[in-house]
Specification:
This is VIT family protein. The protein is mostly helical and 164 residues long. It has helices at residues 3-33, 38-72, 81-105, 108-134, 138-163. It has 5 helices and no strands. Helix 1 packs antiparallel against helix 2 (38-72).
Length: 164
């Protein structure tokens, strides 16, 4: 695998994982803060994960394919859009389950807090691992990932409380 291909796949993996964690925990935190029943939280989270995994992978496929078509007029290029889309789909699907899983096994506010904790932990591990793989500053990358994810959680909670 060429270095350029590797970077494309890592980018799609990180994008899918981060977006899934942040979107899912943001949604779940918001609807729990609004007082929605746990069964509805699980249904909403599951629907979000599958729809967004497909949507993100389609977006990845279309953007990579458009780029490939543009550059193909200059040189012949092997298609990377399908593997990139599959990586996006799988990373979104897998990481989206992290904030949702506590609602399957724990009830009430404990599930809410475990969901947030698991998501922040996963974001920190993702930030650390991606920095190691890409040889960038691990502390800075981990901190940035957790802070930005935390902002989405806060926004979800605030919107849920306001709508309630």
């Amino acid at each position: 695998m060429k270095n350029k291909d590797f970077i494309l796949y890592v980018r799609n993996f990180i994008f899918g994982a981060e977006d899934s964690l942040v979107s899912t925990v943001g949604l779940l935190s918001g609807i729990v803060s609004a007082g929605v029943l746990q069964k509805e939280v699980i249904i909403s989270g599951t629907v979000l994960i599958f729809v967004e995994a497909l949507s993100m992978s389609v977006g990845s496929f279309l953007s990579e394919r458009t780029t490939e078509e543009f550059y193909s007029s200059f040189r012949q290029k092997e298609s990377k859009s399908i593997p990139a889309a599959l990586i996006m789909f799988l990373s979104y699907l897998f990481f989206g389950l992290i904030p949702l899983l506590p609602y399957f096994i724990i009830s009430g506010k404990q599930a809410f807090w475990w969901s947030i904790l698991a998501s922040l932990l996963a974001l920190s591990l993702l930030g650390f691992a991606s920095a190691k793989i890409l040889k960038t500053n691990t502390l800075k990358n981990t901190f940035r990932m957790v802070i930005l994810g935390g902002l989405a959680i806060c926004l979800g909670i605030i919107v849920g409380i306001v709508i309630k």
